[in-house]
Amino acid sequence: MPVEAERQNETRRFFGRFFETAGAEAGLAHTPEPPYWAVIFSTRRDEQPGDQYDQTAQRMITLASQQPGFLGVETVHADIGITVSYWTDEESIAAWKRDADHAFAQYEGRTRWYDAYELRVARVERAHSFVRDGT
């Protein structure tokens, strides 16, 4: 199997555990009617063997899912990673930002794991969904 295909399969298996942990099905978060908040975290990784990134990322999603105000998460990784977490309000987002374990992971991200990242916070005013019959 080509290296890129193997990496994509491994990523799908790995992040599938996140979706189960966060209570989502088929990789899509179940959110309430708007308004609510979205934190969009886009990254370009500096992948190093044994850097503990995957374990820490899984732990952060598990911890986030236990925070008051957390609604769900969606994440994909290829050349860039995009993780969108959903929250009831800005106060919940601020509390998560201050979490000690999360703060340490942020430090590790800046010093070891990311070549670049963008973080955006947005209020969701409208949301629409679709599910094909039989899926």
Write up what this structure looks like.
The chain is an alpha+beta fold and 135 residues long. It has one domain: Alpha-Beta Plaits (2-Layer Sandwich). It has 4 helices and 4 strands. The chain has a 4-stranded antiparallel β-sheet. Strand 2 and strand 3 (81-87) form a beta hairpin. The radius of gyration is 15 Å and the shape is globular.
Keywords:
41% helix; four-stranded antiparallel sheet; Alpha-Beta Plaits; alpha+beta; single chain; 135 residues; 4 strands
The best one-word shape is: globular
SSE topology string: HEHEEHHE
From the N-terminal CA to the C-terminal CA, the straight-line distance is: 29 Å
Rounded average pLDDT: 85
- Second-tier CATH architecture: 2-Layer Sandwich
Sheet with the most strands, sense and barrel status: 4 strands, antiparallel
Protein topology:
Blueprint: H1 3-21, E1 36-45, H2 53-65, E2 70-77, E3 81-87, H3 90-98, H4 100-113, E4 114-124
Antiparallel strand pairs: 1-3, 1-4, 2-3
Helix pairs in contact: 1-2, 2-4
Short description:
This protein has helices at 3-21, 53-65, 90-98, 100-113, and strands at residues 36-45, 70-77, 81-87, 114-124.
